Amino acid sequence: TAREYAKIYAAEAEPLEGFGEVPEIIPIFLVHRPANNIPYATVEEELVGEFVKYSVRDGKEVNFLRRDSEAGQKCCTFQHWVYEKTNGSLLVTDLQGVGMKLTDVGIATLAKGYKGFKGNCSISFIEQFRALHQCNKYCEMLGLKSLRTSHQKQRKATAMKSKTLPNSSSMKKTVPKKAREPRDFIASEH
């Protein structure tokens, strides 16, 4: 799913003057080896160079290479683009790799999934992304809407509603359970 979104993103971004190269999610292949103790393995293209985590799964770590490098900025823009194209229902996360070649990405979806697909990362990543993302020149080149503005508007509307609510002591308070989707792993050899 992430690779397909990356291809569509590339088709939109590459023709733009000054955008340049776009991130590519390299394919991972499942290989069957019946004579081996571990009959299945995944293989992918060898990535040579400095391996960088451009985004993290929990959204809490700030990675300066992500913010300051061209690859990092374009990965953030890719996340923003997917978020906007799916109306905030899906987020490609855990972007990592060498230069513009990315591997082993994660996907977060809203609780019900997105078009039948359920992600392998917590739905809280979507909220964290919306709160922490800072648009860059590549977001502007693609005409993406600022997430700060929509997030700040929601916070103001919530603050105004709380002022007009009846006395909170007469209302029952509920706290939503934290949703956590376990990530499935396939045994692999590197």
TrEMBL record:
Domain of life according to the entry: Eukaryota
PROSITE patterns recorded: ALPHA_KINASE (PS51158)
Basic and acidic residues: bias regions: 178-190
Enzyme class of the recorded protein, top EC level: transferase
Ranges where the Alpha-type protein kinase domain occurs: 1-147
Cleavable signal peptide: none
Compartments where located: Basolateral cell membrane
Keyword Signal part of the UniProt annotation: no
Classification via SUPFAM superfamilies: Protein kinase-like (PK-like)
Region (Disordered): 152-190
GO terms for MF: ATP binding; protein serine/threonine kinase activity
EC number from the UniProt entry: 2.7.11.1
Keywords: Cell membrane, Disulfide bond, Immunoglobulin domain, Kinase, Membrane, Repeat, Serine/threonine-protein kinase, Transferase
Cellular component per GO, a single term: basolateral plasma membrane
Family named by the database record: Belongs to the protein kinase superfamily. Alpha-type protein kinase family. ALPK subfamily.
Role of this protein: Protein kinase that recognizes phosphorylation sites in which the surrounding peptides have an alpha-helical conformation. Regulates cardiac development and cardiomyocyte differentiation by negatively regulating Wnt/beta-catenin signaling.
Protein name from the UniProt record: Alpha-protein kinase 2
Species in which this protein is naturally found: Strigops habroptila
